[in-house]
Amino acid sequence: MQSMTIGLSHSPLIGLNDPDESVLAEVDAAVAKARELATAFDPDLVVLFAPDHYNGFFYKNMPPFCLAREAHSVGDFGSTAGPLKVDAELADVVAQRVLDADIDLAVSARMTVDHGAAQPLEVLFGGLDAVTTLPLFINSVATPLGPMRRVRLLGEAVGRALADSDKRVLFIASGGLSHDPPVPVLAGAPPKVADALIEGIAPTPEQRKRGEDRVVQSGREYADGTSPRLPLNADWDNRVIDVCASGDLTGFDTWTVADIGAQGGGSGHEIRAWVAAFAAQATQGAYTVEHRFYRAIPEWVAGFGVAVATPN
């Protein structure tokens, strides 16, 4: 296997509540460089580690990790709706090997993904079906959340599962870094909200619009300094990228659930995707992060990072 890894933040507010043109230009240049490297690598397969925001996974059955045999994007926040190009037979092989490595990995015969999975495929490849993809959901929002060591071990198991492949494999981490958007929580939720979080009741178009409007308003409050939510944490975000760049992902093993929430916000656990992807890369030997970008962007309620790792 030849491999490369890209860590890429996402935000539902891209295009809906943008920062000024100078910041957009910085982001566009950083993402364009990642796209250029991905295009030059020309992957046969993308393994996409991504969270979900209560669009595909709900409390009625919330696995910590789940690999898709088939996947469809719901098209939230203006992302593309439709099917991803998934290799079901390869997914079966990878799932079995990961299970054989003592990692409890669920399998979905028909996974629903949202902007967290759709955005990186759109940004890097221009669409959902441009490259064969294995979407791997990592729960990053719904408590209880497991220890970071298990996330690292998942990534390592996936990397080893593909080690004998003749494919060019691009591991993508979508999510993070620090951000604390208004995501609903089950504890103390009103009955209708609790039912939706448990049963996965699809919102009406009006309900989805109201929810998206709340997120847009949150971005405006972050930008004008009136948000009551946890601020973005650039120091913490850069520590995340530093550990990923080090090649020693055991550095995350002591990061606790409580501390990640306190430092990175309620959705800061999306760094789990980064840990898994870079752990998968590390199984193939030493690597170097040859492209790195970071900018705290309050308008997007995101510590926005890009990191591209290639083998030494």
Chain-wise SSE layout:
Elements: E1 2-8, H1 21-41, E2 45-50, E3 65-68, E4 71-74, E5 81-83, H2 88-100, E6 106-108, E7 111-113, H3 115-125, E8 133-138, H4 148-161, E9 168-174, H5 191-199, H6 205-224, H7 234-246, H8 257-264, H9 271-282, E10 287-297, E11 302-311
Parallel strand pairs: 1-9, 2-8, 2-9, 3-6, 4-7
Antiparallel strand pairs: 1-11, 3-8, 4-5, 10-11
Helix pairs in contact: 2-4, 4-9
Task: Describe the global form.
Answer: globular
Largest sheet strand order: 6-3-8-2-9-1-11-10
Sheet of most strands:
8 strands, mixed
Tell me how many strands there are.
11
- Poorly predicted parts: none
Supply Rg: 18 Å
Strand content: 15-25%
Question: What does this 3D model show about the protein?
Answer:
The chain has helices at residues 21-41, 88-100, 115-125, 148-161, 191-199, 205-224, 234-246, 257-264, 271-282, and strands spanning 2-8, 45-50, 65-68, 71-74, 81-83, 106-108, 111-113, 133-138, 168-174, 287-297, 302-311. The protein is built from 9 helices and 11 strands. Helix 2 (88-100) crosses helix 4 (148-161) and helix 4 crosses helix 9. A hairpin with a 6-residue loop joins strand 4 and strand 5. The two termini are 14 Å apart. An 8-stranded mixed beta sheet has the order 6-3-8-2-9-1-11-10, with helices on both faces. The chain has 312 residues and is α/β, with parallel strands linked by helices. The relative contact order is 0.23. It is globular. The mean pLDDT is 95. 39% of the residues lie in helices and 21% in strands.
